[in-house]
Amino acid sequence: MSNLDQRSVELRRLVLRGLAGGRRGHIGPSLSLVEIIRVLFDDYLKYRHDEPEWSGRDRFLLSKGHGCLALYAVLADKGFFPVEELDRFCEVDGILGGHPEASKIPGVEASTGALGHGLPLAVGMALAARIRQQSHRVVVVLGDGEINEGSVWEAALHAGKHGLSSLTVLVDYNKMQSYGETKEVVDLEPMVGKWQSFNFAVREVDGHDVEQLRQALTGLPFTCSQPNAIICHTIKGRGIPFAEGCADWHHKALLSQDDLEAMSQALKCS
Fold first, then answer.
1. Residue 148: other Cβ atoms inside 10 A
2. Which CATH number does the domain housing residue 71 bear?
3. Which of 185, 195, 198, 236 could form a disulfide with 174 if both were Cys (CB 3.0 to 4.6 A apart)?
4. Closest CA to 45 of 65, 74, 3
5. 128 inside domain
6. Would 1 be classed as within a structural domain?
7. Domain count, the chain
8. Is 229 inside a domain boundary?
9. β-strand partners of 37
10. Tell me: the pLDDT tens digits for 70-127?
11. Which pTM value belongs to this model?
């Protein structure tokens, strides 16, 4: 896996700021997502941070809603809301909950977290754009454990049937889910072959390598007649060595000051 550059470290510090505010959160699932969401908002998606409902925007859905701290960090960095909102993560007077809510948070396209819902929504958005002759693109990030859900594959069938080249799926393939390794829970291999069998054009990248992500996104659509899938090989908890690849750090509640200081120190050493 590639080393983390300064921007990736700073975004992880914003994730940590949210964790410190709420004293809880999905740590591992958020840290595996940082580069994926960073590159999408830095280099690919069309949006206006001061006009979140702009009709010409690309649609981005974080179907893996429990990884929301990574999205919140990037949205704050991009000016969708003040960075101070991170200090009120999961507080009753804040807008940032443990899963993204579209009615509350500028830049959040759909309320997600009930796993398996994001791709069906994205397929509907892509079909609607085609019918309305609109040119915006639709991007959805799925967790690898999430794709155990049958609704994901039902939606994938429809996307493949309709050749939705404006639709891109990025799979955060960290190979861990809430309580263990995906190969022990439900083995997902052959991952590439599965998406290809649903008529997706597929690429694989190191999901922490910013340049590989940029190159893959620059090449979209991979064909003019297929939806796209990018399999992003990542590490759960990336950037915090004691949390990397550890299911115990999938979610933590009542984080202690010692926990927060240890994570902060780990980022200083990155």
1. 16
2. 3.40.50.970
3. 236
4. 74
5. yes
6. no
7. 1
8. yes
9. none
10. 999 999 999 999 999 999 999 999 999 999 999 999 999 999 989 999 999 999 999 9
11. 0.97
